[in-house]
Every structure is written in C-alpha cells, then in structure tokens.
Write a structure and sequence with these properties.
Elements (H helix, E strand, L loop, with lengths): L5 H17 L5 H14 L6 H22 L3 H36 L14 H17 L8 H9 L1 H4 L7 H9 L5 H33 L8 H32 L17 H7 L2 H12 L9 H18 L4 H27 L2 H20 L3 H11 L10 H20 L3 H7 L3 H25 L11
C-alpha cells in the first residue's frame, strides 16, 4: 500500500486513526500490530509470513541474549552471531540469490537456475531494523523487550516499514511502552504528512517524467543538454520522492504519538561529498556507522585501516541498495571521493571559496545518481559521454528545447524547494500570519495532490524496490 494513494489516505488511515484513538491505551499497540500486518500484506500477502518469522527470530534472540548476557556472555555472543547470519541469509536469499546465480553462471560457464522470486517490499529496511535490536541488547545499549506485541509493533510499524527512516529499537523503546498523544503533536503530524505528500506528488512525480523521456532515448540521440536535463531531473526526483516519503512517515508517526529521527537535512547545499552523506538518508548512514564502521575499528586503528573501513562500508552501502553490480559500482564511486576527501581533498576545499565546494559536490552527486539509476555500466557510460561533451548527438536538439520549455517551471520549483532559504524566510514572517497560512497552504496542497492522484497513474516510490 502506498502513502500517496486514495486508498491509503481516505480509507486505511482514517480507520486506523479512528480505532486507535477510540480504544484504551493498553490496546493501541495490539491494534497497530494488526493493521501493520494488513498494510504490509496488502500487495503481497505471502510475505507477511516472512515478516512474522523475522519478528519471531529477533524477538527470541533478544530474549536469549538478555538472559545469557549477565551469566554466560559467550552464549549470548553465539546467539547474536546465529541471529545475524540468519537475518543476512534471508536478505541474501530473496534479494541477491538470482544475481549470484547469474554471475556464477557467466564466470563458470555453467547453467545455475535462478528462482525469479519477487523481492519482498522493504526487506532491506526491516532487516537492518530488526538486526539492530539484538545487537543493542548484547552491547547493553537497549533493554530486552519481553512483550511480543510491542516488539512486533516496532518491527512492522507501517509509517516507516517500507522505506524508512530506519528506526532502531532503542530510539523508540520508551514510546512503545508509553506514549502521550496530544492535539498539537497530531496537528504537526498532519502538516508534516502533507508536506511530504506535496513533495512526492507535485514535484517528484512531475519532474520524474522528464528523466523517463531521456532514459528511454537511443544512445545516439542523447545530447549534452538533454543528458544534464535528465540527470538533474532524476536528482530532484529521488530527493523529493525519498525525503517526501520520510516526511510522510515522520508525520504519520506523530499522529500515532511516535517521534522518529530526521532522515534528510537539505543535502544539496553541501560543500563536500562527506557533508552530503551526513545530510542524505541519515538513518542509513548512522546504521552503517554504528554497526559496521565502528565495529571494524572506525578511525581508531590508524589511517590505512580507516580507509579500508570506509571502502568496506561503501561497498556494502552500494550493494544494500539493490541486486545489481551497478549499485556496487555506485558505492565504490562514492568511496573514491570520500577517500580522496579524507586524504587531502577536504583540506583543499576548505581553502577555496564555498561555491567551488558546492559545484564540485553537485557534479559528483548528480553524476552519482546517473550510475544509481542505470541498469548497466554501458548505459552509464553513454550518459557520461553525453554529459561531458563526448556524445554523438552534439550539444542540444530541438527536442531538448521543447522539454526544457515544458519542464523549466517544475525544475526551478524543485531547485528552490531543495534549499533551506524558503523555509527560513517563512519562519521570519509574523506568527499570526503563519498561524493562518500554514493550515490554508496545507489544505491547498492536499486538495491539489489528491486531484493529481485521481487523474494520474504515475506514482512510483523509488525506494520501495530496496
């Protein structure tokens, strides 16, 4: 089920909220657990069983680790290792088995059959989320949850289940036990949800159509201007698509009394690639830092080891995003720039005017999204040749000018909306004006977005495939 759909907004969500606030607080987690499973199983009911198995596996592991941690630490460690292996094995089987079968068949000249399984939606997100719980219990960073319903509610919590932000158990453990819902929090949640809805429906969906035009073009037709129009369009699409989803998730959480951590902080204003990844998908970066980078030694074992750790983390970050070697290339692409910045480039950038760092970061990020979205290295190279003036079709065409004229308004809106200046300016307006303007603007965005949803069939969420 998709947040930006008529079914979700006007049927599922009102029913969930109505029952949630009608029942007593002791039954609210039970209700959430039930509707979470309905939400997840709406499109692929069979994978609800996989979700329930994941919940049971990590719940039991957490209980055992908590039991052995004080009296038999080696046993607790064995349970943690087994649990981690089983979680990663499930992820590998459903997400990467076919990729490995195809790769080995190519290398060995054998015919290893693929399974052709449909990828369970959001499996990468909820696997990382559930894995964090027994790890935190083992480290002593989180308490053991003895109530199965509360733990199941955490794992399958529908606002952030499909595409994040990745919520760790220790961040909302107290909220699972006790929440104090209030009208101001609910109203703030509604506003935040509508902001995300507008990002997704009004900006991401519309600007994404420009990328689709050029993505389907023949290699010989891609011009310099066309390639940059497409790359910028996709850079805006993926930002507003994913940050919009995160806004909706945070807003829905507030409607139910939960507070989730932020996932984006205006990444396109960054002056370095290092800063960009501190602002983009922050929950994933934090997860890899706490559960991979630091356990590998982080920066505590000298510069050479730190560089290796960064390389490992970014190789894993790349392949986490999808079962394709292009995602590994994308991860290694960012590893290269992060390593260069760690060695010398960051020091150089700090000595230069700020706009140089901005331009460098935008070129790296926009080029990176081309790698991210293409399905093969050859397609990526076609785009790169055109973007850097080496394409066969020249600088521009009449078709480019036609699409530029048609999409210039939404491109400009997207560029301005990706910057913090508009929000900062709005906050400087008188409080009385904002008190009236906010609900009016929210109502307008809701009505216009709903009209778009009724009239359009183009409504993908890019991160659902992960």
């Amino acid at each position: 089920m998709v947040f930006s759909s008529i079914l979700f907004m006007f049927i599922y969500l009102p029913i969930v909220l109505a029952v949630y606030y009608l029942v007593s607080s002791r039954w609210r987690n039970v209700w959430l657990f039930a509707v979470n499973l309905v939400f997840y199983g709406w499109g692929e009911p069979v994978y609800v069983f996989l979700m329930v198995f994941s919940i049971c596996l990590n719940y039991v592991s957490g209980r055992l680790i908590g039991k052995y941690r004080e009296t038999a630490l080696p046993r607790a460690k064995r349970v943690l290792i087994i649990n981690t292996v089983l979680n990663l094995a499930m992820l590998f089987f459903f997400k990467y088995f076919d990729l490995m079968a195809e790769t080995l068949s190519l290398i060995l000249g054998a015919d290893i059959p693929t399974l052709g399984l449909t990828l369970p939606i959001g499996i990468s997100f909820y696997t990382f989320q559930t894995m964090s719980y027994p790890i935190d219990v083992y480290r002593g960073d989180g308490h053991v949850q003895k109530n199965f319903i509360k733990f199941g509610t955490f794992v399958a919590l529908f606002p952030q289940l499909i595409a994040g932000p990745i919520v760790r158990y220790k961040d909302i453990a107290d909220q699972l036990d006790e929440r104090h819902e209030n009208l101001d929090q609910f109203a703030s949640g509604v506003q935040r949800f509508i902001v995300g809805l507008g990002k997704k429906v009004l900006i991401a969906n519309n600007v994404g159509m420009l990328w689709d035009v050029y993505a389907s073009a023949a290699p010989g037709e891609l011009t310099f201007l066309g390639s940059w129009l497409a790359a910028i369009a996709f850079s805006l699409q993926i930002y507003f698509d994913f940050s919009g989803y995160s806004d909706m998730a945070i807003g829905l959480g507030r409607m139910l009394g939960f507070e989730f951590l932020e996932n984006f902080n205006y990444p396109y204003i960054s002056k370095s690639v290092t800063e960009f990844w501190r602002r983009w998908h922050m929950s994933l970066g934090t997860w890899f830092r706490d559960y991979v980078y630091i356990p590998l030694g982080g920066n505590r074992k000298g510069l050479p080891r730190q560089l290796v750790n960064i390389l490992i983390v970014w190789a894993l970050t790349g392949i986490w995003h999808g079962a394709s070697w292009t995602f590994l290339v994308w991860g290694l692409y960012y590893a290269f720039f992060l390593l260069m910045e760690k060695l010398f480039l960051l020091r150089w950038l700090k000595k230069l005017p700020a706009f140089v760092g901005h331009i460098y970061t935008l070129v790296v990020a926009i080029s990176g999204w081309v790698i991210f979205q293409q399905t093969s290295v050859s397609q990526t190279l076609v785009f790169f040749r055109a973007m850097f003036g080496l394409g066969q079709a020249g600088l521009c065409s009449g078709q480019d000018m036609y699409y530029l004229a048609g999409f210039v308004a939404i491109l400009l809106i997207g560029c301005v909306a990706s910057l913090p200046a508009g929000s900062a300016l709005f906050k400087k307006l008188p409080q009385k004006f904002r008190a009236v303007a906010v609900p009016v603007l929210a109502a307008v965005v809701l009505v216009v977005s709903t009209a778009y949803l009724v009239d359009s069939t183009y409504n993908p969420f890019l991160y659902f495939r992960f």
